[in-house]
Amino acid sequence: MHEKADAPLDPTALSRALAGSLFGGAIEHHRLIDSTNWHAAELAAAGAPEGLVVLAEEQSAGRGRLGRRWLAPAGSALLCSLVLRPRLDPRSLHRLTMIATLSAAEAIGELHTLPVEIKWPNDLLLHGRKVGGMLCEAALQGHTLRHVVLGLGINVNLAPSTLGEVLIPAASLSDALGHPVPRAALLVALLRRFEQYYVKINAGWLPVDAWRARLATLGQNVEVGTPEGLVTGVAEDVDGDGALLVRTPSGKLVTILAGDVTLRGRS
Predict the structure, then answer these.
(1) N or C: which end of the chain has fewer CB within 10 A?
(2) According to CATH, what is the number of the domain 11-212?
(3) How many CA atoms lie within 13 A of 56 on its CB side?
(4) Under 8 Å between Cβ of 149 and 140
């Protein structure tokens, strides 16, 4: 696709580029929205089809994990939410986060040969600095999964002077490459790759090994804020469900299902 790096995303052109894809049929584009995830969740609850894509140039109330705000100047980031209706047990939703981060890292590497890694559980790192993240939110009816909204945020064309105000420490693709980056081509590559993985996990494939291979967290000294308190030690591995396994100074191996990780360097 041809796109000026600072041009608004064109939903018609994106639909053409994604023809035949799960994500090529329904694409909404907003110049300004409170949150793509909030809007996509409302549409999903009203019966929106699987594969609906909600895009925004700017969000007034964008957020990531743990309620953190996601701020980016208009047109500088890739801000996207997907409506999904996966054939997964609700206890397996972590697989969606795994394939989303994998897809983003691989798409960036394919288009721009940048070494993007994953910070447990859902952040994208470029040279150790955060360049993006994912937010997966599910709606249940009893023990049945009704729908999932998967939010994607990637710092594409943020200026270095802006990075300190947005995410600390933060990175952007344009800053790393030294030139503007077209967002549309990145989005198409990401969604094409995500769909391939999505079909596989719906058929029972487990993405944990591929995801583990991209984790920057493993082997690092970490501090993890959890609901039970702060855990410090070395991140040794992840289990089959994606939980982080941390070896504490006392030698105890702690299994962490959810938490906020700070990397403190290699052990």
Answers:
(1) C
(2) 3.30.930.10
(3) 26
(4) no
pTM over 0.85: yes
What does the pLDDT profile of the chain (267 residues) look like in tens digits? Answer: 544 556 899 999 999 999 999 999 999 999 999 999 999 999 999 999 999 999 999 988 755 544 555 567 788 999 999 999 999 999 999 999 999 999 999 999 999 999 999 999 999 999 999 999 999 999 998 888 999 999 999 999 987 666 555 445 789 999 999 999 999 999 999 999 999 999 999 999 999 999 999 999 999 999 999 988 999 999 999 999 999 999 999 999 999 999 999 998 765
- Sign of the dihedral defined by the CA atoms of residues 162, 166, 168, 171, in that order: negative
Tokens 């403190």, residue located: 264
> Helix and strand tally (H, E) in the chain?
7, 12
Right CATH for 220-266 from 3.40.50.720, 2.30.30.100, 3.30.470.20, 1.10.1200.120? 2.30.30.100
Query: What are φ and ψ of residue 25, in 5° steps?
Result: -90, -35
Parallel/antiparallel/unpaired status of strands 144-155 and 220-226? unpaired
Query: In the chain, which segments carry CATH 3.30.930.10?
Result: 11-212
On whether the CB atoms of residues 25 and 12 are closer than 8 A, the answer is no
